[in-house]
Amino acid sequence: MVGAGPTGLFLACELALAGVDVAVVEREAVPSGQSRGGGVNQRSAEVLAMRGLLDAVTERAVPRESVGGHFAFLPVPLDARPWRTRYPDGIMIPQDRLEQILETRLRELGVRVRRSTELVGLVQDSDGVEATVSDGRVRGRYLVACDGGHSAVRKLVGADFPGQAGTMAAVSADIELASAGETVPRTVGHISTMMRPGGGYWMMLHPLDGEGGRVAGYRAVFGGPPQAALPRTAPVTADEVAAALTAVHGPDTVLARLRWGTRFSDAHRQLAQYRHGRVLFAGDAAHIHLPIGGQGLNLGLQDAMNLGWKLAGVVAGRSPEALLDTYHDERHPVAARVLATVRAQRVIAFPSPEADDVRGLREIVMDMARLPDGNEYLAGLMSGLAIRYDLGDPDPLVGARMIDLALGTQDGVTTVSALLRAGRGLLLDLDAPLAPVHEVAWGVDRIPARVVGSPVGTDVGAARVLVRPDGYVGWVGREPHERPDAALARCFAGSAQEAPALLG
Ligand SMILES: Cc1cc2nc3c(=O)[nH]c(=O)nc-3n(C[C@H](O)[C@H](O)[C@H](O)COP(=O)(O)OP(=O)(O)OC[C@H]3O[C@@H](n4cnc5c(N)ncnc54)[C@H](O)[C@@H]3O)c2cc1C
């Protein structure tokens, strides 16, 4: 594994959980301490719950009002509740805190990140990959590049990374204020209330940390004429941030300290192929885009969730190598959709939201977002909850995420997400007598259970459900006698080849 950002850390956790011997190399000596990704969306919250990480995340989250999501900063809250999620607001947690939580979990699973270790070369052969790192060599059967938007691995394998260069420039900075004018938000409300234009700038300012109701740090994301003129590599300065604060929030808003700052653009690119032999790509190494709508970090976590169990199955010899191709087949379209959605939002939100040609478009999108169906559609798009992988089965449940139902089992009441904590697949028998759990094949446990009432509903509309380790439905049986043998082979062997009679 190359890179200990959120993608690399979470993927390493997935592999270690499945018993894979994993090495993680990271160029930096210490964690960055940079907030960058501002939080996890609804689907990532579900994913973290499936691995028992959600409590640690919510403990360190930034308190926020339950005000719904957004599309392009428009002032129409998006309601994710129709998607039957337990986390309709997502969770606001700065990326550095999430990385700490993931690195702690990884240590608990017995893996230490090898810091100050930069990958500088690699060679792959028929058995594995040999990486040259700053202090020697590391050999593994596979290498996963989680080394971010400037991926060295991408360059080393000559991977095609098509897309477009950026056309706008902006700054993201973590700051402290000596004094805050009236317009500075004191709590985290709907994102549209934290976004303001002023003096030729736009700025999103929101509380980041603090104790006892006192805000200590803010995150300021802004752009204006100076940012458009500065090169991408120019360091972000306190004077630059102070000028933007004054322009947008007036002279009463005074900067005390710039913790860190970075420049970003709306460049967007995506790897043509996520797999190059024994080298796979995940997270920003595979796709970059404007960080609007909080998608990048979430895409990376969910890439990791999709790849982890597949790679673990192949390394353990349970699944054929062909299963790895389904990682590209499933995740490439998801990121392509996010890139398209981000570009659509960029047109509406930047750089001049009041331009006449955009105003009409904003009004139309807002009108549509006020309609229940339009709101649900956009909420599904932005939350990651609408993702449905094409698993070759027209049943609308197959390929969609499994609802986190409460279940009564022989061992008591539990939830789907709690049953997934071990990272194994589930065959839920919802119409059979309660009985002990047993493995059917490929690390899938058969669990006889009854759906019990919970905030996400009382039914799934099937008698039997195959849930993959990443929480997506691999197959449903409408009748108790239907058998998942072929679907098991398709999910875990990567093709619907004739399956052995697995279930007896
Ligand atoms: C200003 C800004 C704001 C953002 N806001 C949001 C947001 O609100 N919501 C959201 O979801 N996303 C946001 N993002 C995007 C998010 O930060 C990224 O999508 C996320 O960091 C991707 O995680 P990653 O693990 O794939 O890559 P990274 O976090 O970039 O991690 C890559 C790691 O690899 C290491 N590395 C690189 N090269 C090597 C090498 N050769 N050898 C060893 N190690 C190496 C790096 O040091 C780094 O630790 C934002 C990004 C920026 C820049």
Automatic annotation (TrEMBL):
Segment forming the signal sequence: none
Single GO MF descriptor: monooxygenase activity
Pfam families recorded: FAD_binding_3, Rng_hyd_C
Cofactor(s) essential for the protein: FAD
Domain FAD-binding, residue spans: 2-340
Annotated keywords: FAD, Flavoprotein, Monooxygenase, Oxidoreductase
PANTHER family noted in UniProt: BINDING MONOOXYGENASE, PUTATIVE (JCVI)-RELATED, TRK SYSTEM POTASSIUM UPTAKE PROTEIN
Protein name according to UniProt: FAD-dependent monooxygenase
Gene source species: Pseudonocardia adelaidensis
